[in-house]
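# step 3/5: fold
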Amino acid sequence: FTLDVSLLPDFSQVKSDNIVKNLSAFEVSYDEQRPFFQEAVDLFQKGNLFYSRRIAGVPSGYYSVQSDLNEREEVENNPATAHLLNAIKFSGRNKNGLAIGVLNALTDNTRATVVDSLGRERSVLTQPFTNYNILVLDQSLRNNGSAYLINTSVLRDDHARRANVTGAGITLHNASNVYGLSVGGAVSQVYNFNESKPGYEGDYGYKYDLMLGKISGNWQYSLTHNLMNDRFDANDLGITQRNSQIVNKLLVSYYIFEPFWRLRDMEATFEVYNSLHYLTTKNENLTFTIKANGTDLRYTSYWGSLSWAPLETFDFYEPRIPGRHFMLPGFVNGSFGFSSDYRKPFAFDGYLAYTSASDGSSEYYLELSPIVRVDNHLSFTFEITFSGRGKDRGFATTDSAGRSVFGRRTVTGVENSLSTTYVFRNNLSLNLWTRHYWYQGHYDQYFLLREDGYLDETSTDYKADFNFNSFNIDLSFRWEFAPGSNVSLVWKNALITEDQEVAGGFFDNFSRTFEQPQLNNLSLKILYYLDYQNVRQWFRKSNS
């Protein structure tokens, strides 16, 4: 068993996020960069109920500060993350195969500062003191099976929203580990304070997952059935992007494990995916997909897919109004990617995807990434991506009558990133990571969403064009001066800007971006490892 404790942690030196412009109706989930929440957390992922970025993440009232301003007020300071006071993590597995995991974290009151035209300040509570808890039990069973029970809870002060989610599941295999069965489910309980009663009122939801299949051999297949009702909500300590959903999936795969022809191994898969809206049973997705991947004798891997969605489907999220839907067209999508041998001084990765829809819209994505290892000291990884949408129809705004206004848009994106590492010696290194993300869209036509989910052309003075840029530099110098002890010096530069002026080209946009203010952060951290046995010996010597 291991115990990790972090008191008043400072995560200012972690890698910056790959911030993106979000046009969808769903929250963007970012990778965890904080070491405490990266290490030994697999046990806490049981049931897919834990999203670690919730802890000390964006305060729940962060976005409402601007909209709740009084006349002649402006926001002077609005912290984008809650302040983490401490976090404790305990996990391990005993000799009987029972794994136990406990995680607890506390965040302090988070407040924004608002100032009026006379210089008078007032404080706005954006998130009260919050206690996050997770308890997990996972029992190993025969034939590589397992059973788990997990509970997550979030308790907030100041009569704020509280939540509790409990999940359980079991995985069983036959004696030869050829066939498998998985059953899981969870119940969510969200409590909001009712001022009129007063007291907390609960809202309860549930989900369950079933999977039966053949899990070994050349031929493998599985049938999956998932259901989530319209009230299931694990967003306080997890992430639930879609609820009110019934999903059925058929997967048939063929594996070749031994070398043949010019390949070392290969996998081919056929998948049928169908999603229905829980409340209405309307079709949200019906897709047929063929995909394959393999590795050749030179250790270059290839993969590709072809998907076909033949029917129009119902999108209940894009209108941003509960109960309304938007009719999505059928589409065809194809993709291909490759990755060469990383053991060589020069490697190259690439990926291309293209989608064509029945309404004339299209989407593409191209990613290229050369990896260069100059010698045992110096290495580079460069990545560039191009993306775009043509004649894409999506939500633009809500008009004064509360109706969804859609727009037809052309969207383009370019992302460049460079990672460089220079290792002076095993315990001394310099790392540079820089990224520029540019995403812009131009709307040439606007529509009103009809009750049947189709669009009627309309005129509006609203302009939904956007030009979004995010630029980051992370430069870090790290020296491990003793086992487990190190010094790290990190400089971070960040810039995020957005306006409605569509740029004429990449270099025009790039020069305009750097006319905006930038945020610079320089931090020095010294970590010294104290061995318990050595400390005991020091005290004994000092007392003798």
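# step 4/5: annotate
The mean pLDDT is 95.
# step 5/5: archive (pending)
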